[in-house]
Each structure stands twice: as structure tokens, then as C-alpha cells.
Amino acid sequence: MNIIRQFVKKTIPTVIPRKLYLVHGDADHFDSDTDVGCCKTDSRSLINIAFTFDDGPHPEHTPLLLDVLQKYQQQATFFVIGEKARQYPHLIERIVQEGHEIGNHTLTHSEPAQTSTRSFLKEIQQTDEILEQITGKQVNLVRPPKGKLNLGKLLGLWRQQRTVVLWDTDPRDYLMNDHSEIINWCHNYQPDSGNFCLMHDNHPYAIEAVHQLSEHQQARIQSHPVSRWIENKALQPTRTQQACA
Ligand SMILES: [Zn+2]
After folding, report:
1. Is 224 a catalytic site residue?
2. What is the set of domains in the chain, with CATH numbers?
3. For ligand 1, a single-atom ion, which residues have Cβ within 5 Å?
4. Contact 65/206 with Cβ under 8 angstroms?
């Protein structure tokens, strides 16, 4: 079953428009020399990726994560749970105010195998309403819990023209018990442009991961919100210039 899932995960992005289904970004989507002019002293190669954080917002970890993202001028995408967004609306507001993006991760994070298509789509709709009430904006990105969808759920989302966002890089921070584990993972990580990295802000290790990855030895890692990877290449502003100012 796992092999079939892997096959589907790899095959769909090659035949479906990225507006509907994203597992990673195009490696050459961002110009690699976007910010050459102001960062000449940094000899590391620039690698553009997407940090994505699921299962928040969390009252303790999310503010610290936002602090470290701000410190390194990284922009990320938060796939939030509707119930938690309703509980901590100020964190949703802060996420948006600081230039990050919000995605829909269902209302309760219900177990995919035990959630009907109808309930799943209802949870998506309820979360849309909560997020729209807080931010005043419609949310387009959806990440299903555990990345699992059946055909009915997938088609239900596509009927709404939603972008389903999965990932290609997973440190499994939710299984870690110690900071040394995430530090080791970051040291061994060989980043590729276009990587979508899955982390969790209801656990503490994403905070250290952003710190470690931003200080990566071999590469200067710049994270962009997921929607930036869907935009036309020609439309990109040179945001990374700010990071060097
Ligand atoms: Zn989740």
C-alpha cells in the first residue's frame, strides 16, 4: 500500500497543474542570483525551499517559532487546525501580519481512515469560515491530515479549485524526544531547491530546525510561502533582497 501511495505521490504532480496539487516546488522557480548584489560576503549557495508547519497554532511554540522566523527573515506556511485557530485567533493574526501564509488543515485533524468524504469537506468548510473571520481573506491551500486523501476527498477539493499541498522532506519532528535529534537531522540534510519541508508547531523542535537550517553550513536556505511556488516566475518580487539588508 505504501508503495502505491509513494507512486501516486510522485506521479500526480507530473500530470496535474501545480495550482491543484503540490508536493514540492520547481527547482528553478526562484532566480538563484536574486540577491547576489547585497550578499557578496556569503559564499554559500542559495537554496529556495518552503518551510511548512502543521497542527498549530500552539500557545507556547508558535510565538517562539514566529520569533525565529522573523530573526532569519524566513517566510513560511502554517497549515492550521480550525479548532485551534478559533482558540488562538491572535496567533493567526500574527502569522499573517508577519508575512506568512495560512493553509487549511481541517477543523479537528480527524483520522483520515475514519472520516467520510462528506465530514472531511465539512471540516474544511468550517475551518475556511473560522480563518476568513479572523483574517478577512479566503484560504486556498489545503493539507489533509497525514497527507491522506481518497479520490472523493481529492475531487471534492478540486471542485473548489483548492490547492492540495503535501511535502517531499520530513524530519519527523513529531517523533523526536530531544533537541539533539533535530540538530543531527539538520546537519545531515542536503537541501534541494524546491523542497517542501514538513514540520509541526505543536511540537518544540521546529524552532530549533529553523535556527539550524538558517545557519546551514553548505547552503543559505531561504524559505518562501507555498503560494509563491504557484505564481508565475515573472511575477516574483525580489523579496530576498530584504533578508540581506
Ligand atoms: Zn497534521
Report:
1. no
2. 2-243 (3.20.20.370)
3. 54-55, 145
4. yes
